[in-house]
Design goal:
By secondary structure, this protein is α+β, with helices and mostly antiparallel strands. The chain has a single domain, classed as START domain (Alpha-D-Glucose-1,6-Bisphosphate, Chain A, domain 4, 2-Layer Sandwich), CATH 3.30.530.20. 23% of the residues lie in helices and 41% in strands. The protein has a seven-stranded antiparallel sheet. The chain is globular and about 45 Å long.
Length: 150
């Protein structure tokens, strides 16, 4: 069924000329996913299963800041969703979520990357949503497309 995407979300997408089964191979191991996701972020751990752990970091103001959480959805050829919670002292009251969803379209695959769940942050929701809208680009998805289509 997949994870429900909340109304306060950042969405980026790419259209890849390959089947969802082919695209999903790039989600099947830590090495495969880090080849395209390590674009401005550093992936330290990715356990491709429900209940697995995702650990990442990003450099902000010269400081490595760590975040991640549990894998909530891992549907082969379709979706991976996981918690995104900053490590202290930057923790939110509750985690937000990342969902990467693959949908067959026109004999190819639409890959959508959502950072969502900002409504869970209450008074912090508006500023966090705006900050992530300004910060997200599509370099991760361009790298994925390049790997799959090469």
């Amino acid at each position: 069924m997949g994870m429900q995407i909340g109304v306060l979300q950042v969405r980026r997408s790419v259209f890849i000329k390959a089947t969802p089964q082919r695209v999903w191979r790039e989600f099947s191991t830590f090495e495969a996913i880090s080849n395209w996701l390590d674009q401005g972020h550093s992936l330290h751990k990715f356990e491709p299963k429900v209940g697995g752990t995702v650990e990442m970091s990003v450099q902000i103001g010269g400081e490595d800041r760590y975040y991640g959480g549990r894998v909530i959805v891992y549907e082969v050829d379709r979706e991976v969703s996981f918690e995104s919670q900053w490590q202290p002292p930057y923790s939110w009251p509750v985690p937000t979520y990342w969902t990467i969803r693959l949908s067959p379209v026109y004999g190819s695959t639409l890959v959508e990357l959502f950072h969502h769940g900002f409504e869970r942050l209450g008074d912090q929701a508006a500023d966090n949503l705006l900050g992530y809208e300004e910060g997200w680009d599509v370099r991760h998805l361009k790298a994925l497309r390049s790997i799959v289509e090469s």
